[in-house]
Design goal:
Blueprint (H helix, E strand, L loop, with lengths): L1 H8 L3 H23 L3 H15 L12 H4 L16 H26 L3 E6 L2 E7 H4 L12 H13 L4 E9 L10 H20 L6 E5 L12 H7 L1 E8 L8 H5 L13 H6 L5
Parallel strand pairs: 3-4
Antiparallel strand pairs: 1-2, 2-5, 3-5
Helix pairs in contact: 5-7, 7-8
Length: 277
C-alpha cells in the first residue's frame, strides 16, 4: 500500500511544470507587447502614475513638445476649436443688433423718412409714424410705403440668422364718433406689415409676431390732435438671439404689458394711463 501511494504522488511535478510554462509564455507575450508600444503613450502613462503617487518630476517649459505649447488651430483640428461661451454669444448678438440699427437709421436719414430708430442690448426699436404706412382709418399699405418696407425687410433678412423674433405692434387713437373698431384696425395694420415682409421680402414667417393694442397704450395725450397723431403708430421690436427674458418672480410681476420690451421712452406715458378720446 505504501508503494502504491508513492507512485500516485510522483506525477505532481507536472502541475508545477505547467505553471512555469504558462508564466514563461506570459512573460514572452509581455515582452512582445512592450516592443510595439507607443513610447510617447508609455511616457504619458508613467507620468500619470507619478502624479498619482505624488512623485511627479518637475518639467521645464523647454521640455514640453512644441505642438503642446502652441497648438495649431485650423479647419481640420476639431479638438482645438473653441466654442463661444454664453456671454460671448450675447455680446456678438448685441453687436449685430447695433450694426442693424445703424444701417436702418442711415437709410431713414438718406430718404428723409420720419421714423425713429433706437437700440439697446440685443434689441432694435423702430417707430413708424402712422401716415408713413397707412391712410386714415385704413389697414391697406400705402403704395409709397412699400419701397421703405422693402429696404428695411432686406436688412432684416440679411441678419435673419441673428434675429430671435420681430414683434410688430399696431396702435391707434380712435377719433370721436368713428365707426371703425380700433382693436381690429391696429391688428390688421400689424398683420399687413408682417404679411408684406413674409410674401414680398421672404423673411422667416415664424419669427414675425403681430399684435394690435388699439388705443390703450398711448405715448401722448389722446385729448389733443397732436397727441393722437403720435399715438397712431406701428412699432417694430427686433430681438437678437442673445436676448433673454426675465426669469425671476419679481421681474415677472413687473413685466411690461407690451412684453417682451417697451420702446424707449414709452413707460412713463403708459404708467400714467392716459385714456382714449
Amino acid at each position: 500500500m505504501k508503494r502504491q501511494k508513492d507512485e500516485e504522488g510522483g506525477q505532481e511535478w507536472l502541475n508545477t511544470y505547467a505553471d512555469m510554462i504558462t508564466l514563461v509564455l506570459t512573460f514572452f507575450v509581455l515582452l512582445y507587447s512592450i516592443s510595439n508600444v507607443n513610447i510617447s503613450k508609455l511616457e504619458e502613462i508613467a507620468s500619470a502614475m507619478q502624479r498619482q503617487l505624488g512623485i511627479e518630476a518637475q518639467t521645464d517649459i523647454e521640455d514640453v513638445p512644441q505642438d503642446l505649447k502652441y497648438p495649431v488651430i485650423g479647419e481640420n483640428n476639431e479638438e482645438s476649436t473653441q466654442v463661444p461661451t454664453g456671454s460671448q454669444n450675447t455680446q456678438a448678438s448685441a453687436r449685430e443688433m447695433a450694426l442693424m440699427a445703424r444701417d436702418i437709421q442711415t437709410y431713414f436719414d438718406s430718404e428723409n423718412l420720419d421714423a425713429i430708430v433706437s437700440n439697446s442690448e440685443n434689441a432694435v426699436f423702430i417707430r413708424f409714424k402712422n401716415d408713413l404706412l397707412f391712410d386714415p382709418d385704413s389697414a391697406s399699405l400705402r403704395a409709397d410705403s412699400k419701397s421703405m418696407l422693402d429696404a428695411v425687410g432686406i436688412m432684416l433678412k440679411e441678419k435673419q440668422d441673428n434675429i430671435l423674433a420681430v414683434y410688430i405692434n399696431g396702435h391707434t387713437a380712435q377719433a370721436a364718433n368713428s365707426l371703425i373698431n380700433d382693436r381690429l384696425l391696429s391688428s390688421e395694420r400689424a398683420d399687413n406689415v408682417a404679411i408684406y415682409l413674409e410674401d414680398q421680402v421672404g423673411f422667416d414667417p415664424k419669427k414675425l409676431i403681430c399684435r394690435g393694442y388699439g388705443k390703450y397704450y398711448p405715448i401722448a395725450d389722446n385729448a389733443t390732435r397732436e397727441g393722437r397723431e403720435q399715438n397712431r403708430r406701428v412699432d417694430m421690436i427686433i430681438l437678437g438671439n442673445g436676448y433673454r427674458p426675465p426669469d425671476t418672480i419679481d421681474a415677472m410681476e413687473t413685466m411690461d404689458p407690451l412684453f417682451p420690451v417697451t420702446m424707449p421712452g414709452d413707460k412713463a406715458m403708459i404708467q400714467e394711463g392716459t385714456g382714449s378720446d
